[in-house]
Amino acid sequence: MDNGTRLGHPGPKGTFDTGIGNHKTIFEILCDNLKEAYQKYQVYVPWYIMTSKQNNEETIRFFEEKGYFGYPKEKIHFFKQGELPVLNEQGKLLLDKEGNINEAADGHGGIFVSMRKNGVIEDMKQKGIKWAFIGPVDNILVKMVDPIFIGVCEEKKVLAGGKSMIKAYPEEKVGVFCKKQEKPSVIEYTEIPKEMAEMKDEKGNLAYGESHINCNLFHIQAIEEISKDKLPYHTAYKKIEYLKEDGQTVKPESPNAYKFESFIFDAFEQLQDMAILRVKREEEFAPIKNAEGKDSPETARNLYNNFYKIN
């Protein structure tokens, strides 16, 4: 789970105050989603939260201080994300301010290996869990419990599914569904060429406009298989604080190093097929990624308030 640095928030992103209701944090809104499911189905759905090495203790302490938002403590499980070393522009390792090899989280695609290493898969199997929803922390309209989504995957006899929506404009920062060598896949927005992003079909619609909104459903059988091998790594050019040879800590003002991360949608390529369920943006997609502008707390609040008809 990311920290909220892009939001100007010093803690884990889930602890960010959305300004909704009585200053609900993202975590509280997600928990509301699970409590609503309990009211419908009289079942407490287990909630597995992937943290990072940096924010694990802070996240757990936050939940303890908030009384787990009234959700049964034994139904909430925390596990840590994996990490990989970062490299500078010359391909050399960097040290952090403590003098250790500088490492960064390995991307949301690392969740499968982390689930295996931390005993999450085995725990799910012992509990008889068949399907697991895997999604981001920052979408406050996410439906973590969606029987229709499960039903579509069951009806199509596939081991995974992804939710989609129509891309709002060519430059929107979302990956798009496609097929690679006849296997389901996603092209990340950072990797799709401009001309491909703008390409239109005979009806005038974006040819690559089926957005992957990172709302994924995996059968436990698929999770177990995918966790046996690491997914391919993508590079990201980032500002990374590091320790110089003279012992001084450098806080760069521009990107200076490469981190490596895997993406969850690369797991789709290990499947023969998957289900894609198109949903409405205004009903299921209200991300909080930027401090202002698009995908900001303001836009997410508006979407949330409109959906729940809050004045």
Q: Main β-sheet: number of strands, strand sense, barrel status?
A: 6 strands, mixed
- The CATH architecture assignment turns out to be Alpha-Beta Complex
From the alpha-carbon coordinates, what is the Rg to the nearest angstrom?
Answer: 20 Å
What is the CATH topology classification name? Spore Coat Polysaccharide Biosynthesis Protein SpsA, Chain A
In percent terms, what proportion of residues is strand? 15-25%
Protein structure class: alpha+beta
Tertiary shape: globular
Order of helices and strands: EEHEHEEEEHHEHEEEHEHEEEEEHH
CATH level 4 superfamily: Spore Coat Polysaccharide Biosynthesis Protein SpsA, Chain A
Tell me the distance between the termini: 31 Å
Low-confidence parts: none
What's the count of strands? 17
The number of helical segments is 9
Number of domains: 1
What is the share of helical residues?
10-25%
Reading off the top of the CATH hierarchy, the class is best stated as Alpha Beta
| Mean pLDDT over the residues | 93
Structure description:
By secondary structure, this protein is α+β, with helices and mostly antiparallel strands. It has a single domain (5-307), classed as Alpha-Beta Complex (Spore Coat Polysaccharide Biosynthesis Protein SpsA, Chain A). The protein is 25% helix and 24% strand. It contains 9 helices and 17 strands. The protein has helices spanning 26-41, 56-65, 111-117, 120-126, 147-156, 194-198, 220-226, 281-284, 297-307, and strands at 17-20, 24-25, 47-51, 76-80, 83-85, 87-88, 103-105, 131-134, 160-166, 175-180, 183-187, 210-219, 234-238, 242-243, 249-250, 257-261, 275-278. Strands 8, 9, 10, 11, 12 and 17 form a 6-stranded mixed beta sheet that branches. A hairpin with a 5-residue loop joins strand 14 (242-243) and strand 15. The longest helix is centred in the first third of the chain and has 16 residues, at 26-41. The mean pLDDT is 93.
